[in-house]
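Progress narrative, work stream C.
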Amino acid sequence: MEMKTKIIRKWLSLMKGQEWKDIRLSVTPAFTTGKIKRMSVLIKECVANFCDRVTISTKKDGKINAKMMFSAFTLDVIARCAFGLNIDTLGNKDDPFIQNAQFVLNPPINKSPFVTLLFMYPNFLTSLGSIAERLFITKELKFFFQLLENILKERSQSQEKFNDFIEMADEAISEFTKEIDGKTVPMWPREEIDEILMGQSTFFMLAGFDTTATTLTNTCFQLARNPDIQEKLYESIVAQMEDYDEVCHEMVQNFPYLEMVINEVLRFYPPLLRVDRQCTKDYSYDNGRIKIKKGQLVTVPAFALHHMEEYYPDPEKFNPERWSPENKINRNPYSFMAFGMGPRNCVGLRFAMEEMKIAICTMVQKFRFYPIDETPIT
């Protein structure tokens, strides 16, 4: 199997069985609260640069293209945290990282039927062999594989600390062990650890780009449409800042109203329109009335679920109060699937929330959002 195909096979979303369990367990420690706190400093640097760009844009045009700017911000965060690189997407569009990322992350490639088939049927990749590589593993995607290979080689010869995902995932995966003949040994050889790291870093980019950028855009849209909610969030930020000099990891950790706003955005516009799971063994319920065969694909329509009157009264109204402790306590937790659900939920959930919290707090503290003539009605 080609090295590049091996890397893609290490994407968590494509893995199954014990291999998935082992790699999921090994990667998860890279997203603990302590590790997120370390990466939070990098996120703040990207947010500061982003706010400078917003200020320049508003002074020049009096408005911003929110989706375009949040996409640039999200790419800066991915480059900093998943690749250890400082880039400025809005200020240096000729950067090879940016040019290759824009091809990989934007349509038509990420909307192609082949990509959909790849995620639904992971074995499709290896069964097609070289055809799959020509269809999916483009020269732009190969750029990131080569980049990561170079980064890992350089870091193996350096003592410098980076506090980014590569470093933390490397630490976590390298510490994962198994027993052989009564001896504790590393779970994987160094070569395979590098494949896992390269796989997770590229998957980090693919899974965390549009979902985060779109959620931040939708947050600004709803705040602009609901000035009362925007004002309440601003006042909550001011109150929260009384104990802190700046927006930081500790400040956003225990911030109920901020989470209420973000959760309502995620309910209204779920990043995943549906959640797909494959049945691992024959199963029946409701006294055998409903039977699911092993290997059968089960799809949960997250968007429809998030807009069901049964769980969310007046579902077309944007209402953060539905996430207050007293309002959500009796709600079925499986009625909210913004990040999936169960053991295969989004492994980067905490990172995504940290990124969005810091960005939203800093933005609302510095700016006010208003709709303009070009702003969509819905």
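Work stream C, second folded protein:
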Amino acid sequence: MFKILYVEIRAALFNVLIRNITEHKKKNIHKIFLEKIELKSKGNKERITKKGQEL
């Protein structure tokens, strides 16, 4: 009896955790995408300035 209860509670918590993660990801996908673009543009700017300094 106790073992079955434990498994069910664990499964329920796991489902809630997965739901929270997926909702969180949906909200943050746009933010993450923008951050990646910003990082790429920063990297390109740094590369351009390094090339400029070398020249």
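The helical segments are 2-54. No further action is required on this item.
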